[in-house]
C-alpha cells in the first residue's frame, strides 16, 4: 500500500519566488559526503515554522553522470540531511537511518532538454518522536513542480549504533570479490562500471555488485551497503524487466535491515498488476541470508 503523496502541497508552490533567497553555502559534512564535488545543494534558508527552502544545481557530468534517478534520489537525501543537521539539531556524530522513502516525478523531467541548471526544494519537517522525522518535500524547476517526496528518517547515538551493529560495525572495506556485471545496456547504463547487478543464472534475479570503487554510490567507507546503492539496484532491475523507455514516475521504498558486505544479496524483480492500465508496476526485493532487506515498487508509464 503506497503511502499517500501530498497533492495538496501543489497549492503552495506558487509562493516560492516571493520567499527571500537562501544565503548559506552547504558543507559536505551536513550531507554525509567526503567529496565536495558530490554536493548538489548550494544554499538553504528557514522559512518560518517547520518549513525550509534549499537550492540545488545539477552539474554537467560529475560523479553522478547524467542519471536523473540518481541525481533525484541524491537531491532528496541531501536536502533532508542538510536541514536535519543544520536547523533541527540532529547531531553530526549520530548515525542516520532511512526507514522509507516515496517520491513521484513528472515523466517529462527525464527528457534531456528539461535537465535543470537550478532547482528549488521546499521542505516541511514534522517529528515522529524525539529521534525521528517525517519529511515532506517538493522540487521545482523553473517554477514548475517536477517531483514530490515523503520520507522518514531517524538517528542513533554512536554507542547504541555500535551495539546494534555488533560484529558488522567493523567491516573489511573493499576486500570482497565483485562479480562480473550485466551488459550495461540491459540495465540502462552507458558503462559497465555503473552496473550494480550481476547474472545469477535465474530469470529476473541478480546478485548485487558491492563495488566500492563506484564513487557515486560509495563516497566513503561505511559498514553496510548504502541505501542509495539499493535504490540504484532497483532502478536497474526495473529497467531489465521492462526494457528501454519505461522510466519510473513513482518510487516507493522500504528498508527493513542493513545489507551487509559479507554475504550475497539477491535482487528479485517482478511485474505485478497495477490499478492504472497506463502504468507498468514492478516490485523489486532484496534478499540476504534468506531475509528480506528492502523492497521498492516502481510505477513506469507504458
From TrEMBL:
InterPro entries listed in its UniProt record: AfsA-like, AfsA_hotdog_dom
Domain (A-factor biosynthesis hotdog) ranges: 30-148, 187-246
Protein's name in the database: Gamma-butyrolactone biosynthesis protein ScbA
